[in-house]
Amino acid sequence: MRQNLFREVTRRICGSLNLDEALFDVFLYLKEELPLDSVMLTVYEFEQKRARIIAVAYDEGGLLVDEVFPLSNAAWASIGAWQKESLSLTVPWIRDHTHPINSEIKKVLIRGMTAIATRGRTFGAFSTITCALKLKQQIIGNLTFVAEGEGHYNESHADIISEVNEPFAIALSNALRFMDLERHHKALYQDTREMRGDVMIGADSGLKHVRRLIEDVAPTDSPVLLFGDTGTGKEVAAGEIHKLSLRSPGPMVSLNCGAIPETLIDSALFGHEKGAFTGAIETKPGRFERAHGGTLFLDEVGELPAAAQAKLLRVIQTGEFERVGGSKTLTADVRIIAATHRNLADMVARGAFRSDLWYRLNVFPVRIPNLKDRKQDIPAMVEHFIATKCREMNLPTRPELSPEALSRLSAYDWPGNVRELQNIIERALIISKGRPLTFADLGRETPESPFSNTSPSDPFSTLNDAMATHIQHVVDHTRGIISGPKGAAKILGIHPNTLRSRMEKLGIKSQPPAGRG
Ligand SMILES: Nc1ncnc2c1ncn2[C@@H]1O[C@H](COP(=O)(O)OP(=O)(O)OP(=O)(O)O)[C@@H](O)[C@H]1O
Predict the structure, then answer these.
(1) Where would you find the membrane-spanning parts of this chain (predicted)?
(2) What is the mean pLDDT of residues 66-93?
(3) CA–CA separation, 106 vs 125, rounded Å?
């Protein structure tokens, strides 16, 4: 009988990484063995004199709480003494509701119940029994059983709680590590986003209308269809929707439907079983499985072949799918954001895209305007891309913009939209070598001669650009020396002061000369 208790508790509490589910499962079982209205896992944080409630289960279900609450001095005094004692000896602690620690526990129980229970329930008098959970002589946390009414627990219940100590300790230790990892992962993800400069520039100006639509739709679970030409920022907009949604703690997974060979689309979306096809050396989850609890961004959805369109429609309708080569039906809770630069309505009219899928995806359409129609965003974008690219490229200094740079960038039509702007800036940074960015050849650059600011003989440079480039060459040649017989002014045939003021006007910085000069 007791053997069975240990086995059953181990199976249930270690059966799922979701501690709330596992705790509820074990609660239902233990309820048959002893008086039980709630079970609770806590950790006492000694330095801060507070308790961290990890999870609670009641008749209504399990709840992952992970919240700390300070303990009164009276409660802390008895906890401290008991925990010290528990280090050497496992002594389950039987208390009634009048004990100082239990008045704190009661608050947590009621808060938890309000969060989870549909029917209003209050705890009047209650009894508790608590056991320190130990692994390798270390206290991992505490397990508390709670029963409504006074004097429910006795020595026989102390035996039960001691017996199930180990499986609970293992489960709690795993859950704590898992929670730490999750926290670490989230912080890392946030840092990476910030490092990559993953933000939507223009949300307060050229993309104000888009931003408003995003804010409206983000908290709902509705599918969103993003339209816009290539490089306008559809994926950035999808990221914003995910960030502002209730799914933001979950993953955001992307698939560019146009970049995957037709034969691999099913596997990319739904995953495959080991051996399903040549090259399937191991079972691999697809994007739907990976996006469970989060958002799936389907870029270039108009490129999906007809068979994949039918399968996608089925998942959207039923939430069910099978891996390639698998027979088990899987489910995923996923919000879909799709994007296209094509005219999908036209494709539907021509029969190139399923109308039923189109209606499912086109619940909330958002159009991202071309960059040429929101040129007011260009200065902020230029600032942003220079900063992020300098960081990515590990450039020691951040070059200035030449006086004409912004007007040139604003006069251009940007057929490749924001992506083109980003690329132009990256290329300018590579060839500028710290000199001001002029963008003199914008729209005319070829792979052989990308920008004019390196070529003094470029026939299309303005006089100022040609002068800036030439002065820079000479100043580089003299290693920053301006005056004197070996100075740049002498070579250029002008007075050093004239050269200095011209350099200032053209935004040319000279490196400090090596040694004296
Ligand atoms: N508003 C914006 N703020 C900051 N960066 C942006 C913005 N819009 C686009 N970008 C950047 O421009 C590049 C292209 O954006 P994105 O991939 O979102 O465009 P897209 O419309 O999805 O392109 P495609 O249709 O070719 O897939 C990305 O590197 C993105 O970070």
Answers:
(1) none
(2) 79
(3) 10
Between the alpha carbon of residue 229 and those of residues 7, 75, 375, 484, the distances in Å are: 60, 63, 16, 56
pLDDT at 1 over 60: no
Kindly provide the ipTM of the predicted complex, given to two decimals.
0.98
Instruction: Please choose from 344, 419, 425 the residue to mutate so as to test ligand 1's pocket, defined by most ligand atoms within 8 A of CB.
Output: 419
* CATH of 2-179 among 3.10.150.10, 3.40.50.720, 3.30.450.40, 3.40.50.2300: 3.30.450.40
Q: For a substitution probing ligand 1, which of 205, 235, 424 has the most ligand atoms within 8 Å of its CB? A: 235
Q: Please tell me the distance between residue 200's alpha carbon and the centre of ligand 1 in angstroms.
A: 9
- CATH number of the structural domain 462-517: 1.10.10
For atom 8 of ligand 1, the residue with the nearest CA is 233
Query: What percent of the chain has pLDDT above 70?
Result: 88
Task: Output the CA torsion 417→418→422→424 (10° steps).
Answer: 20
101-131 per-position pLDDT tens digit: 777 777 766 666 665 554 455 667 788 898 9
Assign 3-state DSSP to the chain and report helix, strand, coil percentages, each to 5: 45, 15, 35
Fold annotation for 206-369: Rossmann fold (3.40.50)
Q: Separation of 234 CA from ligand 1 center, angstroms?
A: 6
Grade residue 190 by pLDDT with cuts at 50, 70 and 90: low
Q: Taking the model in full, what pTM does it have?
A: 0.56
